[in-house]
Amino acid sequence: MIKTPQPTAASALSPLCRSIATVSISGTLAEKLAAISAAGFTGVEIFENDLLYFEGSPADVRRMAADHGLAIVLYQPFRDFEGVSAERLARNVERVKRKFEVMHELGADRLLVCSSVAPDAIDNDALAIDQLGQLAQAAAQAGIVTCYEALAWGRNVRTWRHAWKLVDAVNHPNLKLALDSFHTLSLDDTPDAIASIPGNRIGFVQIADAPKMQMDVLEWSRHYRCFPGQGDFALADFTAQVVKSGYQGPLSLEIFNDGFRGAPTAATAADGHRSLLLLEALTHEELAKEKDTTGATLYTPPAAPTHTQWQFLEFAVNADARERVAGLLDKLHFRRAGQHRSKDVTLYRHGSAAIVLNAEPDSFADAFFQRHGLSLCASALRVDDARLALERAAGFGYQPFSGRVGPNERVVPAVQAPDGSLNYFVNEEPGKPTLFEADFALTDVDGPTEVGPITGIDHVSLSLPAGSFDSWVLFLKSVFGLQASAAVLVPDPYGLVRSRALCSVDRGLRVVLNASVDQHTAAAETVRAYHGTGLNHVAFSTGDIFRAVTEFEAAAVPLLRVPANYYDDLEARFAMPTDFLDTLRQHNLLYDRDEKGGEFLHAYTETLDQRFFVELVERRGGYDGYGAPNAAVRLAAQARQRARAAREQAE
Amino acid sequence: MIKTPQPTAASALSPLCRSIATVSISGTLAEKLAAISAAGFTGVEIFENDLLYFEGSPADVRRMAADHGLAIVLYQPFRDFEGVSAERLARNVERVKRKFEVMHELGADRLLVCSSVAPDAIDNDALAIDQLGQLAQAAAQAGIVTCYEALAWGRNVRTWRHAWKLVDAVNHPNLKLALDSFHTLSLDDTPDAIASIPGNRIGFVQIADAPKMQMDVLEWSRHYRCFPGQGDFALADFTAQVVKSGYQGPLSLEIFNDGFRGAPTAATAADGHRSLLLLEALTHEELAKEKDTTGATLYTPPAAPTHTQWQFLEFAVNADARERVAGLLDKLHFRRAGQHRSKDVTLYRHGSAAIVLNAEPDSFADAFFQRHGLSLCASALRVDDARLALERAAGFGYQPFSGRVGPNERVVPAVQAPDGSLNYFVNEEPGKPTLFEADFALTDVDGPTEVGPITGIDHVSLSLPAGSFDSWVLFLKSVFGLQASAAVLVPDPYGLVRSRALCSVDRGLRVVLNASVDQHTAAAETVRAYHGTGLNHVAFSTGDIFRAVTEFEAAAVPLLRVPANYYDDLEARFAMPTDFLDTLRQHNLLYDRDEKGGEFLHAYTETLDQRFFVELVERRGGYDGYGAPNAAVRLAAQARQRARAAREQAE
């Protein structure tokens, strides 16, 4: 279907048009433009190489963009303009005029010029001002707005303040300031005074996030940028400054990321768009705190739920798998608490932890089981307002889902997570039947009669294909408002695993994401077993882990064995009473302590179906981590378990 | 099979024992020790975590190592010993005594102590000398030799000179200097005066290479070290200094490499061992140049061939594939030059380029075809002395191969490359029949009657699985003595491709290695098509590329189309006459120019069987590269070709 061509001049843009540079995603130019449009962007930066490699003219690119409803908001074909000899300047002016012609064909009216990086660039502000002035004059004749940006590794100009000083001195309507969050925040430079620049003197704003890294800033920029919300930069602060300046041009993602270059085009573009929405929402919150109203045109979704916790985890099973999972739950002293009123679905409970085993034929769970085998097909999250939570998720572009509902069953709003599993939003209203009461024939209506050692679900840990890691971070941040800790690399005996924990402000919801860097780690094997993303483990919380492991040992729960050397090292690292250490050793318990004295005691079961295992955790004194120093010990023990299983199978 | 336990004390070592740290390879400790022993090492450093995660005692580790004939030459369980308060020192001495006990159990008599990295480490050489003295005294009581090493990111001590100053001042037989090539060469520090240290005061020498990178030295060290010869450090210089000092202890590889952590254990260990052999050989050459004889105990293989060139490329084909390849060769004006005397093998020639198509049933080529389909199953290299070349290759641990030979056929020495393909070594002796004369019924015994535009083989480019990239670098460097240029990242529309060129000193042999970082690049598709390493393309050289492409266009050779925008950009980048540019455009020729004015003109055919293509290259004025700036244009055009083919198949 060919759409009617739209006007593409950037001057026709609405305030804060959302844009992305074509370099940010994979594919041919045609594939990129289609995906960028489908994701919801209205603007695009054409990266010079994408034009160069394209089998058609700049006018063809303009038509193709217009057919997709995209304005070409920027072109950046020029480097090292200023700080040069008079002779070189004359050549540069001639060259830039040729580029202006290309821009006319492209229908782009903004040209980005970065501060010179040439080793011989002359360090003389007066000269730079004069030469940028000549650029502005040439641009005025061509009807182009040039935008001057400080590169963090520029030869002489490295900060936005310096670039602004030059632009301000030139004082010409065809030379404006360009800002890029990466260049400012990578240098730990403050964006604080950006608000004081007149908004109409800012010509363009590029946005990029990045993980904090100790490396050369050029390399960091070229390979590790990511979408807002996926890295560690304080981007809402930065963007609030931009908005307060009165700037009304595009916010444009310019992301150089090695992973994105090989990731699926459409999914990456969609993540880019929702990352801008999330950034706008957070910027709006930032401004609202200051009672500043300049952010009125920013995207504002319903607020993220303030309290979130697991209501239940739902596993897709068949009869065989149900028997194995039910067997483990039984040993962990879960009780069979109810049977679904109309479906082959069983509810197990222990403390506030609830597990649902779904064997209903021809259901979503069934389809999930066909594809992934025994797997976590849905997570139900208890929120303040389920309808608002769904609205928020849908606003960020996640697909709402409606399943088959039987008589008397509650309609539960849900969205699909990046792996296609469901996230239900549940809220219970006073005086009405609970979800479990509505859907299940409960065997213990008034709550548990026995009280076991498990109190609830502490966290859920997922194994992901490497390419979906950042998509999940964005999903959990945007839908649930979770906060992410920095990613860590964990050594498995067969390679490295990237791991990142996210949790809600009140710590009611904790999710750990793992993606293997290498082919043969436990996390990689898990992804293979599930044919995609899958549950790595569920951690149940307990207030008394010694009681819990004692009970579970007696019930023949297969607990993972921890080598004796681990305890010798523990003794060397932490001062602790001998009998305490002995108890840890005796029960294969792992231990960690934080700087404030908070303690973490945890144990693992062996792995079920080569897929997932159960962790038991006791947090003491406000410990807020996940025992990361012990991950390598656990992974080594699991590798031995896998090797043993493989040997037994071979024999 | 259990071997008789060997003495494991390091003092019993022969000079320059070859060792590796267990952290350098993947697997469980048991798997690591088996692989290290099988690779030929006689020493091993036990990394502390490997002991910690092991389900057995230190004495068990000692026995396991001894069963494999391995001495445990070092243990490094201690950090931040010196530069501390008196109270902290007392604790450190107590702790290190416990570690000495573990070392006694392990049978290790060398302890590595790195310079302190603690932010509060006291910067006072006198204090450090005093405290290292106390360490030496404790070590003397335990019969342990402590080795003090400057970490490149140490708090106060960062260079080997500084560490040596402290060790020399302590002046105690139980405190020696430890050297690590990474810590010296990463700082661009010179190893030049190491030779002046008395060799018996050096306690341990660790060796690591690394690619030159602009990044934080700690991160660089922890993730990017590699085996000697795989990186960019001048390690033979460093090692020559060590040897000249009179040091006679282990040379030990301590390689922190993210890729090795996920790579196959045995193959990585084997590469490690041969990388040490190669380093010794190069060090020996270094010393021989100076007429220094201290390197007498170093490994000295037969010299690498001084002149190497392609004799022929041999493709595994069946009847169908032969028809397609022969069709392309025919269009490229290769002539059918001979038929093998006893096998279903045909020879094609054009200029000095020779291609052999092998369809012999039940042969090595047949097995290769079964596994990889149409593929390059062997490369024959013309060398000065084939027997010596084979000896050299076998000495580095590459597998010699003997195939079935018919009557009157020449026995051709060969080794297997890392992908299992063969490398034949051929030398022709005056007055004897050439290989082609011996093996083939030649149709043009006196050489070609017609002279075509192709003069020979310029280079061969391979697509590799990422994990085998560094193995190939080592193979080509050790067997043929090739030199490697720095690796570059090339952007394919669907991801990044790592590429590295190697060539012989006289430029007679050039090989380009490519490994895809991402899943869907052309290089990744090629690896999938071949089920492993495979030919990416063959580049034929010509002295007149305009004549060549004109001829080949007339012969309907399918040449890759280059977008018009490429030529507009070329004009902007290089000053060139309009008619020259027009000729390039007309013939879809790519162009590059080096800083000295050398020129590279090249063109590509479309891809045959979704596997490989042919490049035509003309080098002018000593151009020594491969047109790297044009790789992205070519990859984009190939991506379009693939997409077109996929569309046509779908229709």
TrEMBL record, chains A, B:
Its EC number is 4.2.1.118. Mg(2+) binds at H459, H537, E615. It catalyses: 3-dehydroshikimate = 3,4-dihydroxybenzoate + H2O. It comes from the Bacteria. Residues 311-428, 456-587 form the VOC domain. GO terms for biological process: 3,4-dihydroxybenzoate biosynthetic process. Belongs to the bacterial two-domain DSD family. This is 3-dehydroshikimate dehydratase.
